[in-house]
Design brief:
Elements: H1 2-37, H2 41-53, H3 59-71, H4 75-85, H5 96-107, H6 111-124, H7 129-136, H8 140-146, E1 151-155, E2 164-170, E3 173-178, E4 189-190, E5 195-196, E6 199-204, E7 215-216, E8 227-232, E9 238-244, E10 246-247, E11 250-251, E12 261-269, E13 272-278, E14 288-293, E15 299-304, E16 314-319, E17 330-331, E18 342-347, E19 352-357, E20 367-372, E21 382-383, E22 394-400, E23 405-410, E24 420-426, E25 435-444, E26 455-459, E27 465-470, E28 476-482, E29 487-493, E30 500-505, E31 515-519, H9 532-535, E32 541-542, H10 552-567, E33 572-578, H11 585-605, E34 614-617, H12 635-639, E35 643-650
Parallel strand pairs: 25-31, 33-34
Antiparallel strand pairs: 1-24, 2-3, 3-6, 4-5, 6-7, 8-9, 9-12, 10-11, 12-13, 14-15, 15-16, 16-17, 18-19, 19-20, 20-21, 22-23, 23-24, 25-28, 26-27, 26-29, 29-30, 32-35, 33-35
Helix pairs in contact: 1-2, 2-3, 3-4, 4-5, 5-6, 6-7
């Protein structure tokens, strides 16, 4: 009994040891997960990487590490941990992580692998806006290259090792948001990235145009929270700005542990900013941020994840009424917004909307995009290209359209801080008037014959003619449409054919290069008593002098007649044959009868039902000219009378 107990002790100690190890791992994992779920990504990363160093690994660790780095915009690290995640065999995971991995691969310039993962994402989520945009723009890199090299950019001297971003114009001043440590905010550290909260600063260019010195704005605008993204009225008396949710000027979180963003409005009185108040459509349960005013100051554009958004954040617009009140915010729709982030809108004097997005095809991270916003039915979104955009985050773009100068922020390599401000000059204006090439052919619906000189018209949803063209010798056509239009209608017409058409959608870019419009020929009924040969516009059936043999040229005509009657068997004909006046009337009567019989015989031999065609010879009684005697006309004149006619006796 004692011996048995002695043998059991080592096993019991081992079990207790492993049980303690498992319990310790569970506690560490739960702590890391708690940090992750409370958006303390910096602390979550530290906890998960400590577990990795201790030899632990799991799907959850890799997934959350990749996601935490993704939220911190450290895409290289995120890519590494997502790569480890996808090495796990038989992995079952939400397709959203395919998308995130694809995005992070772009940061290292690995666009080929990124596209492969985007295709996997699109295969699983084929109705996702981002998947559709990718499928429609697989040549997105070429499009970006074509739109690049239009700007000269410069990292400005005012940047610090911290984050500097969200520039805006305020007269001659440059207003921006910064996380630079100024002593008093040392304790104001954000758990998302372990960096100080941001404040609003101002700077004025020196005589040589450099921004060197910056000063913090008033305490009315800067509290113990994040402040960023300002928009000033032209008279300089009102400012809209972004601030974290707060109580009594201090940081405040919602029930999920998130401090939401809100837009505030303040007024300038006695050269001091006063009365900072929330806009009425702010909410403690979602964010409203990054305001931008229209030229007439009657509309405010902003980003939000309020109910009704397509993704993590969308671009909205709201009317500003004469009395300073606001209308109902409107989502700008899914041509602009996706399931990812659309943020930092900026509206120019000419109604060009610039915004940052990681949902549209880009170079990686947030890219800057532009669209003409004045016509919602023709929205066409363009990636502004390099050097504004890079594989990292590029955002908060502003521009003075008069002098073509502006600023933006970027986390690209080579900067001074995590986000830097860059100045730029636009040398070549952006082209927002994109046209699509719509290619196709027009053909006969039955025979497949390509139809030349067909009129093809392109119509929009309002039945307005966008383009019109005539098909070429091979039946082909090319029309030009607008890239922003979702659907078009094509209408083709041709003489002797019924009009035909079809609807097309620009969602399927492959369809735009292979459109077929099939037209049905109009069947014109031959009137009883007409010559079918003339109705079909065929060559006459002529005979040689004193012959009843069917000539080769007549065979071509008869074969066409046989084909027509085969299609329309209800048509009945009578062969009426004739001669010239070269012989006697009696002889010519018999000759014409032989010609009628020869014509009928050929028809019946080659497909026409026997007994269905009747014939009659008229001799020289129905001459077509005045060649009433042999010597009165030459042979060419007499030839016109040596013929067979196919007279319709029953039509369709």
């Amino acid at each position: 009994m004692n011996a048995k107990t002695d043998h059991m002790k080592p096993l019991l100690i081992i079990l207790i040891f492993f049980g303690c190890m498992i319990n310790a791992q569970d506690k560490k994992t739960e702590k890391a997960k708690e940090n992750f779920n409370s958006y303390a990504y910096a602390e979550a990363i530290e906890s998960y990487e400590r577990l990795i160093d201790e030899g632990y690994s799991s799907k959850e660790i890799y997934k959350n590490l990749g996601d935490a780095y993704y939220q911190k915009a450290d895409y290289n690290a995120s890519s590494y941990w997502f790569g480890k995640l996808f090495e796990i065999k038989d992995l079952e995971i939400d397709a959203e992580y395919y998308y995130k991995y694809a995005q992070t691969l772009k940061t290292s310039g690995n666009y080929e692998d990124s596209d492969a993962w985007m295709q996997k994402f699109a295969n699983q989520k084929n109705v996702d806006i981002r998947a559709l945009k990718y499928q429609q723009n697989k040549d997105y890199l070429q499009k970006i290259r074509d739109n690049s090299s239009r700007y000269d950019i410069k990292n400005i001297a005012i940047n610090t090792p911290s984050a500097d971003f969200a520039p805006s114009f305020f007269g001659e001043q440059l207003i921006f948001s910064t996380a630079r440590d100024t002593g008093k905010i040392l304790k104001s550290v954000h758990k998302w990235n372990n960096k100080p909260f941001t404040n609003l600063y101002t700077s004025t260019a020196s005589e040589n145009g450099e921004y060197v010195v910056a000063e913090r704005l008033s305490k009315t605008l800067n509290k113990k929270t994040h402040e960023s993204s300002t928009a000033f009225t032209k008279d300089g008396t009102t400012v809209y700005f972004t601030r974290n949710n707060s109580k009594n000027g201090n940081f405040s979180r919602d029930q999920n542990g998130l401090s939401r963003l809100k837009i505030y409005r303040a007024t300038l009185k006695d050269n001091k900013w006063k009365n900072a108040t929330e806009l009425p459509f702010n909410n403690d349960e979602y964010s409203v941020a990054h305001p931008s005013l229209s030229e007439d100051e009657k509309k405010l554009y902003f980003a939000s994840d309020m109910p009704g958004t397509y993704g993590q954040s969308d671009i909205f617009v709201v009317d500003i009424n004469e009395d300073g009140s606001f209308g109902v915010p409107e989502n700008l729709g899914n041509i602009i917004n996706t399931e990812s982030r659309e943020t930092f809108p900026y509206i120019t004097n000419n109604d060009v909307l610039y915004f940052a997005s990681d949902g549209h095809p880009g170079l990686g991270g947030l890219d800057m995009f532009a669209t003409k916003i004045d016509d919602q039915s023709e929205l066409y979104v363009v990636n502004v290209g390099e050097p504004i955009n890079s594989p990292q985050d590029d955002f908060s773009f502003i521009m003075n359209e008069k002098n073509k100068k502006g600023f933006f922020a970027s986390s690209r390599e080579g900067g001074i801080g995590s986000d830097d401000l860059y100045s730029f000059i636009e040398n070549v204006p952006i082209n927002l008037n994109c046209h699509l090439a719509i290619n196709g052919i027009v053909k006969d619906i039955k025979s497949g014959e390509l139809l030349v000189n067909s009129t093809v018209i392109l119509l929009n949803n309002n039945n307005e003619v966008i383009d019109e063209i005539t098909s070429d010798l091979d039946g082909s056509f090319t029309l030009k449409g607008f890239c922003g239009t979702k659907e078009y209608r094509l209408l083709a017409s041709k003489e002797e054919y019924k009009n035909g058409g079809r609807k097309i959608s620009i969602k399927n870019s492959e369809e735009l290069d292979s459109i077929i419009i099939s037209l049905e020929k109009v069947i014109q009924q031959p009137v009883v008593g007409t010559d079918l040969i003339k109705f079909l516009d065929l060559s006459p059936i002529y005979f040689d002098l004193d012959k009843s043999k069917i000539r080769p040229d007549a065979i071509i005509t008869l074969n066409n007649v046989i084909e027509f009657i085969d299609k329309y068997p209800d048509i009945k004909i009578e062969v009426q044959s004739h001669t010239d006046a070269s012989a006697s009337a009696h002889y010519n009567k018999n000759l014409s009868e032989r010609r009628a019989k020869a014509t009928i015989a050929y028809l019946e031999k080659n497909g026409i039902q026997k007994g269905s065609v009747k014939g009659h010879g008229y001799g020289e009684s129905n001459l077509l000219n005045n060649c009433t005697e042999k010597d009165k006309c030459d042979d060419e004149g007499h030839q016109l009378n040596r013929r067979s006619e196919l007279i319709v006796i029953k039509s369709l």
